[in-house]
């Protein structure tokens, strides 16, 4: 597909998607979101890679929605913009590959939402996260959804009500990111995390990702019952049989994909 707002490259089994609107601080316009959803859907369907990294070109990860676009939209157009964002976040959730956010600079509003929606996140030590919409009379209601499911109610409300930035260290403490590293190490550490995941069975990862999000809001034993069914079916797959056999014979497994 032709890309106007993104860059895409494949490094072995790792796919790297770069937000490429540095002149707009990688603002998530409707065009960019549509392109991102289409690209991720294609990657998920083709299954040429086992893991995805999403990062930003330029000085920041993403400053959120394009406010000029928001300001100029009629109400129905604005709803379509936010529904496009909804759809893009859903693609990230439902695609079989794990998605890792590689965050530098700032990730604000919908940019922070994108980080929270990804399965994993690695941030540089100088990265900042925020939902500052309250400062301009536009409460960050949509970013609040994934933010509150990452960091907990009280801290999420503090960010949403004050508009203050959260440091990378606090983002690690409260669970918004998985790792915080020196700026010069950000790409290497993210690539290493991706390479580790990419080395496992893609089918097992896909089963695990889907099951994780299915069970997370269930009651404990409802979740355990569901997970028991999933792992039973998983254990019968070619890759699971190969992995167990390799373990018992003390050799490296050879995955089918």
TrEMBL record:
Belongs to the enoyl-CoA hydratase/isomerase family. PANTHER family: ENOYL-COA HYDRATASE DOMAIN-CONTAINING PROTEIN 3, MITOCHONDRIAL (PTHR43602:SF1), PTHR43602. Signal peptide: none annotated. GO terms for molecular function: hydro-lyase activity. It comes from the Bacteria. SUPFAM superfamilies: ClpP/crotonase. Keywords: Fatty acid metabolism, Lipid metabolism, Transit peptide. It comes from Desulfoscipio geothermicus DSM 3669. May play a role in fatty acid biosynthesis and insulin sensitivity. InterPro entries: ClpP/crotonase-like_dom_sf, Enoyl-CoA_hydra/iso, Enoyl-CoA_hydra_C, Mitochondrial_ECH-domain. One of its GO terms (biological process) is fatty acid metabolic process. This is Enoyl-CoA hydratase domain-containing protein 3, mitochondrial.
